[in-house]
Amino acid sequence: MPSEIKRLRALLANRKLSCQELVMAYLRAIERDNPVLNAYVHVTQHQAMQAARRVDEMQTSSGTFEEPGPLAGIPFTLKDNISTLGLETSCCSKMLTGYRPSYDATVWKILQDNGAVLLGKSNMDEFAMGSSCETSCFGGARNPCNPNYVAGGSSGGAAAAVGGRLAVFGIGSDTGGSIRQPASFCGLVGLKPTYGAVSRYGLIAYASSFDQLGPITRSVEDAAILFDILAQKDEKDSTSRGKKEPVAPGLQNEIRGLRIGVLRELLSGADDAVQCCLEQAIKTFESLGAQIIELSVPMLAYAVPVYYILACAEAASNLGRYDGIRYGYAVDSYGDLDERICKTRSQAFGREVQRRILLGNFVLSSGYHQAYYQRAAHLRGELIKAVASCFAKCDLLLAPTVPSTAFLPGFAQRNSVQTYQTDQCTVLANLAGLPAVSLPCGCGPNGLPVGMQLIGGCFEEGILLRAAWHFEQDTAGAFLPKLEMGCGL
Ligand code: GLN
């Protein structure tokens, strides 16, 4: 797939199109198609038009398009858990409805500095907890490939917007798969960078030792361009480390001889259709000169319980700040302080968030701490060692992104534990802090996209995206959804 960012930048630079025309076309498409997709929960129409005007003015006055930045005029969306100064950031929760942050997240600041135009905030599972976007207080986002299905979660709105051509790219967060899973469901590219590559400053925390921000795009090249822009060291995030070197210029370098390890346990746990597409993808990599290595990591069976114990423990602590006193929702009739806190949290958090807070506090409570939290933390370390030994034998790991195609609405709500289990392929990269990308590799019998996941070593986004780029070139983007909706420009 050619880069959408480059294509649009060329149109803008050659003055075939003004930025205001481009942004207006996207806003019109949002007005028409958002009622079906529910991708956006706040549209920043006024600010978007102002930003577009600034880009047009800058271009006229400087005469050169490079001036306003490499993303100048490119319309995009931010997940609703990314802080935007003065613009509602609700995490799709009643708890934060109407909350306007007093500062900008670093990623948003970088994108503004590079001239990108924010169209609005995208739908998500409440506080990023979920796999279908349906725990959102605004209702779930629908799949642009077939709106009878969910877009996935938790960054479902960003995927619905990009897939439905209501944004050129989306920025999501990924704690246990929330960028890659909706990208897989909607036939898109989703990149979760190495933990620490992109600053988390201003990202409203779910589970801080797992959370990472990254792009959802229609092409691997766009993911690489955005990674290069976003991966910067940030003083405001003590875990941020930036990156080694730019990855976009190296995408076309050879992948002959690259050693790709196939995680058999994850592959054999997937639906037949997913297995079939992945087997085909493995053949494609072989034909591109990669060496396929079969791997078995029995410990992977523990990845989902370890992730849920640790993520819920961190969430219980992170969400302790919503007490109805400092900010966010607050009840107005209560007896004492305890009742105020209790009533506020019971009324403003949805069922899934409450379940996880309870679970998190349980695994941290005295008497259970050792049996659950400490044991899970120990197993996390063992899983990290097991993956490290895989990287001694190969350069990349290959697995499905999700064991199935997109769910029907209501499935995740009715089958919580079964849905947790569908994170079996994605959580490993978060537990180990590794970069991973999902890209389309086929279609299921229902016509919905199947995603392939590649996992790289720490800060090896270069190799990761290079392999993804060659695969995408070979398959000529054949698996991208063909759509009639969205902005046709
Ligand atoms: N589905 C996973 C969960 O519910 C992942 C969420 C995420 O990455 N934010 O925790």
Task: Kindly describe this structure.
With about 500 residues, this protein is α/β, with parallel strands linked by helices. The chain is about 40% helix and about 15% strand. It has 17 helices and 11 strands. The protein has an 11-stranded mixed beta sheet with strand order 1-3-2-4-6-5-10-11-9-7-8, with helices on both faces. β10 (about 435-445) and β11 form a beta hairpin. The radius of gyration is 21 Å and the shape is globular. The two termini are about 15 Å apart. The mean pLDDT is about 95. It binds glutamine (GLN).
Describe the SSE topology.
Elements: H1 4-13, H2 19-37, E1 40-43, H3 45-62, E2 75-79, H4 106-113, E3 117-122, H5 156-163, E4 169-174, H6 180-185, E5 189-192, E6 212-217, H7 220-230, E7 259-263, H8 264-268, H9 272-287, E8 291-295, H10 303-318, H11 337-348, H12 351-364, H13 369-391, E9 396-400, H14 411-414, H15 416-421, H16 427-432, E10 436-443, E11 449-456, H17 461-474
Parallel strand pairs: 2-3, 2-4, 7-8, 7-9
Antiparallel strand pairs: 1-3, 4-6, 5-6, 5-10, 9-11, 10-11
Helix pairs in contact: 2-3, 7-17, 10-12, 10-13
